[in-house]
Amino acid sequence: MSSAFSASQWLKQLDADGSSVRLPELLWYQRHTRVLNLKPTMSIQSKLAGTYLARSKGRGMEFDEVRHYQPGDDVRTIDWRVTARSGKVHTKLFREEKERPVFIVTDLTDSMRFGSNLLFKSVQAAHLAAMIAWHVKEHGDKLGGLVFSNQQHRELKPQGRSHGVLRYLQALQQCHQSSTKMNGLTLSHALGQQRRLSRPGSLVYILSDFATVDEQALRHIRAISQHNEVTCCQISDPLERGLPSSARGIAAVRNQQQVVTAELADAGLRLRYQKQQQQQQAKLIEALKQLGCKYLDISAGAPVVSQLEQIHHGR
User: Fold this and answer.
1) How far apart are CA 255 and CA 270, in angstroms?
2) Measured distance CA(164)–CA(156) in Å, rounded
3) What is the pLDDT of residues 210-241, one digit of tens each?
4) What is the CATH number of the domain that holds 194?
5) Contact, 112 vs 124, CB < 8 A?
6) Domain count, the chain
């Protein structure tokens, strides 16, 4: 997205209202995945063939290095040029290509149904999930995970190509608009299910405001992160990070509509509130760091593409 677009123009371009999740606005992210980087930073342990290079050396498609021949090495991998040049037998080593499933856990529970500026936190989570999903498809990985609300949840086993992405986007739309109680989940229960779904060497994204995170949820995250690469994306609203000094609105004054400004809180109260919120966020970040997770802070008050562009460029 061009930085020239204002937030209101961006919503208009997506034909979005900020409070509901529609399939067209999720499809829009198919062309905006360049600011993400899903390259693994840990060893991939899947036994299936795929598009990433394992750190273990063996037979495969990608040349890695040459070393001295050892008893038991396949004679077909002998590098005859290096052998002739050095006078000692050398063999080629390869890095084996592996598959890495990607799981997205998207929280659409009641605490996420809030937005004071641009989007509901739940809508922002859906937008971020869509961007990740399209990036997964672009790199040939399989996509799975969980979408859950207080009303219902969808558990999605990994599938590849566009089918895996579209299935996840439909789950986002259906769970967000659902008003019927159908076995909804809490964050802790959802992470417990994801713990069962995850395969060693997977990449797991957890998208939530973490408002209901507890010791049980952290235990599940610890178990998942022991054999997987976990990124926790905290979705927040600007009002949760700091109180404004005043607010503007439309009011009827002498039978006429006028813009009025109301004072909301004094400087001392705003400062105490901001400090309290910063302490809570720091506590969460430290807990996730101790569990070996990556942390990404995303606001519901600005388009997610522009935020990731700023992170990507180090601003």
Assistant:
1) 34
2) 9
3) 999 999 999 999 999 999 999 999 999 998 98
4) 3.40.50.410
5) no
6) 2
